[in-house]
Fold:
Amino acid sequence: MISPPIQKVIAIEEHFWIPQLRETYTGLDLETAPAFVSRLEDYGSVRIREMDEAGIDIQVLSHAAPAGQKLAVDESIRLSRKANDVLSDIISVNPARFAGFAALPTPDPNAAADELERTVSKYGFKGAMLHGVSAGDRFLDEKQFWVIFERAEALDVPIYLHPATPPTAIVETYFKDYPEMSRAGWGFTMDTATQVYRLIMSGVFDRYPKLKFIIGHLGESIPFSLWRSDRVLSRFGKVKHRFRDYFCNNFYITTSSNFSQAGLICSVMEIGVDRILFAVDWPFMSNTDGRSFIENALISSDDKQKILGLNAQRLLRM
Structure:
């Protein structure tokens, strides 16, 4: 049964890319070659048709991983800015259908903070998306990156922490014999969850208590592990609050590319439905599958409406 209509159905982890950035990648992902390339570079017709087929009103667009984060500083700044300018143009053609998360040149954290402010203030972007480690395999909890988080808190916009391939040393150690594991099947989850844990343990949320992060794929398995992680990691006392308090107060999760009913129920029970937002992970996943997943969920109609759009409207001020 279709849920009662809500004001907007908003999908918030939906990707595009620009050829100038794609050409810097050393090779195409297993997930992006070759069927998805044309969709990532489709900024209108196919994208909107498939949104309409699934009853999705708005996509919040973000550049596909790793955007400009693995490039040298000057190239990262130039191409991140280019990607954001292109995204602004895409949105301006269809402002009722698209919004945006900025790509940030994290190899220069100060430039990344300035680019976040430029895109939010000038273009009305809803925040930014970061993809895994930065150039040199630097983790985001390192103090050099906190200027980005300070700016995000001041602007009152969230940062979407999206997976990317784990650091080289991790891939070589854990996945040498099974390279297919290093990506969406496990490595992405492991990498993003580790970044979340490091951010919480670093004390960044004590410094910036209103800082907001979003993570996809039903929380990268963290809701399932939250009880045990809280019990163990809260013993160390290097931060002001318990581990689960930071996760439940400073993080939101999305349904992107993880259409598990059991996972959704676990997430609702652990962090509450107000912290869960709808996402598909287009074009890597089907819009209709993502929408059907919520329609068939064993939750109330009111909770479906929160996930499909109301929570995003509140968080992103849409």
